[in-house]
Every structure is written in structure tokens, then in C-alpha cells.
Amino acid sequence: xxxxxxxxxxxxxxxxxxxxxxxxxxxxxxxxxxxxxxxxxxxxxxxxxxxxxxxxxxxxxxxxxxxxxxxxxxxxxxxxxxxxxxxxxxxxxxxxxxxxxxxxxxxxxxxxxxxxxxxxxxxxxxxxxxxxxxxxxxxxxxxxxxxxxxxxxxxxxxxxxxxxxxxxxxxxxxxxxxxxxxxxxxxxxxxxxxxxxxxxxxxxxxxxxxxxxxxxxxxxxxxxxxxxxxxxxxxxxxxxxxxxxxxxxxxxxxxxxxxxxxxxxxxxxxxxxxxxxxxxxxxxxxxxxxxxxxxxxxxxxxxxxxxxxxxxxxxxxxxxxxxxxxxxxxxxxxxxxxxxxxxxxxxxxxxxxxxxxxxxxxxxxxxxxxxxxxxxxxxxxxxxxxxxxxxxxxxxxxxxxx
Length: 402
Ligand SMILES: Cc1ncc(COP(=O)(O)O)c(C=O)c1O
Description:
By secondary structure, the chain is of the alpha/beta class. Helices cover about 45% and strands about 15% of the residues. The chain has helices spanning about 5-15, 15-30, 50-60, 75-90, 105-115, 135-140, 160-165, 185-205, 230, 265-280, 285-295, 300-320, 340-350, 375-400, and strands at about 35-40, 100-105, 125-130, 145-150, 170-175, 210-215, 235-240, 255-260, 330, 355, 355, 365-370. Helix 6 links the parallel strand 3 and strand 4. The longest helix has 27 residues, at about 375-400. The chain is globular. Pyridoxal-5'-phosphate binds near residues 105 and 213.
């Protein structure tokens, strides 16, 4: 076999979303795209905000020399400064351009952070259910992911986190608003986490970094706000992108911001700048840096996602599904009516509904629905959800009769 054994294993492990994607492509070819209800992918369907096009065209029309050249690996100073000003306002802690690096999306940013922090065998705590790529990002840089489940309502289980900390723990990744649950960790929970990380760090004579993966920070509902990670803990980094809030996932543009009082801040920024280069990103895309630098504070119309969330929650509740309503992001993570989430997702598939089994996110017994689709798709899927629930109940009843 020409490819690495590790990549063969990776391909197996990452296959759930891909499997659903492939099943979806087949079903759409067979039944017509309009007859398939595809909730499998978190690919934002809203167009970028109207300001984006004008800013892009103006940026593309400029012709000064060097506009398309290499630059400092951390990005353009004026863009880093614009991003720093915005993060300072969001986090309530002043941040300078020295503490910001432009990256190839949040995914690029997370890899840069891991590359800068991890020696082989260092541990990173990730919380289940998780964004499946975290495993790869940790492993890419020789780290070991320690999975800690969240509580029943998907809030932080501080006792379980404490129990998972070891002398090798280098970092914990938190993602809020969360993919796949849509939950937001409260300021109180983050304060308790901070206390815990401080205490554990002192006990092991080390620093445990808190990495906040926040690409959904601006996609929130019912007036919810995402509490500041920088106010909670000084050894923290925010990794984010414009993939979701400007609907630009294909443009690969994001950033990392480091808390100004973080231990070894300069060393860390230096290491991350080098990591950006030697991971082969070199620097974030030049044109997109110039564009997002001008669009600080602009977001897609989140009320559209909010409307869909309400619609989907109503349909699921009316049909007997149990779920914690999402406070942000564009995912629902209901309980599977059958303990076997793969079996239930297969029942949904019979109704031409595509969902991803919870085990793909490290949490069997649930399934994920991404609602970055038109309202009509959600509306028209309602009878299918009703029939799938009835079929699941019938299966459970049959098992009881046996
Ligand atoms: C939780 C989470 N983190 C990171 C990413 C990667 O985002 P980006 O496209 O900015 O690399 C995603 C994308 O879906 C995500 O859901």
C-alpha cells in the first residue's frame, strides 16, 4: 500500500460526514436534489453580506507593486491591527497587532497553535461531542487527544476535565458556540474552568493553555452573547475565522489572537509565526486579508439562521424528538430515538433525510442536523421526521414484545 497506515486509519475515522455526503450525492442523482433533505454539512448557504462584493472588487482593482507578494508570515500589519481592535472590543481586553496572526481559516489557526505548543506525547483535552478534526490537528503535531465528555445538557463537566489533566496536559480546546450542539459555555463555567486550569497548572508546575475555537461567535440567537475567554483566563488564545460569519469558508481566511498577559506570549507568537510558515501556509491569502481587514464587525444576517432554528426546533418538538435548543451556530444535536444512532440515521435516510450519527462526534446516541439550508427544505422534511420517529417507536415496541 503506497499511503501511510496512519492515513488509512484517518480515512476510516473521518468517514461519517463523508459517507453521508456520498449517500446524499447518490440520492440527489436518483430522486432529484429538491426531494432530498440534506442536513449533513455545515457549509453556510447564505451569501456573504452585501458589503463583501464591493470591498473585494476595490481590493482587486488596486495595483500598487508588491500587492501579491510574500509578506511577514503573521500577515499584513494594518490587517492585524484592524482585527486586534475588533477582538479587543469583543473580548473586553485590549489586544495589539503583535498578538494577532492571520491564518488560513480556523483550521489553519488550530494547526498553527498545536504545532507551536506540542512536543511528542503532550496531551490536549477535547470535549465530546467534538468537531471531529480536532483529533487530526492534535495528532498532526505529535500530541495525544484526551476526550472528556460534557454533561447531559452539554455544559462543561469540570470534575471530568480535572480528572483528565495530567503532567503532560498542554492545552484544552473549547468550542463555543459549539459544533455540533449549538451550546454556549457560560461566563461562570469559564471562570470555574480558569480556576481549575490555574490550580492544575500550579500543581504540575506548568501552564495549561486554553484554546477557544470561536468561528461561530457571531452566530447567536435570542440575544445570547458568547462570554469573553480573555476575561476568564490569561493563558488563552482565540482561534477564529470568517468562514461562517461572512460565509467565506472556501476563501480560507481566519486568525489567532493571544491574550496579552499570556505566559511566554512573545515566544508563543514567534513559534506560531514560524509554524504558519513551515506548515506550508506561509501566510494567509493576501487579497482576503485586505478584504476582511475592511469588514470588521460585518456579519451575515444571523436572523435567517435564527428563523430556521425556530422552525426546526418546532418540527422536532412536535414530533417527539428530545434536544437542547441551540443558542448559537447552525446545528441541532437531538437524542436518537434508538440507542443505535447509526440505525436511526438509516431510518431518516429512508425518508431521504441526511443527518450525521452522533458517534461521528464522539457521542453515540445522538445525531447532528445542520440547518444551513433553505427554510423550505426544513419545512418539507417534517413528514419524514414524523415517519422516522414512528418507525423507531414501532421497532422499540417490537423489541419489547419479543
Ligand atoms: C468547530 C469548528 N472549528 C473549526 C472549523 C474550521 O473552520 P475554517 O473553515 O475557518 O477552517 C469548523 C468548520 O466547520 C468548525 O465547525
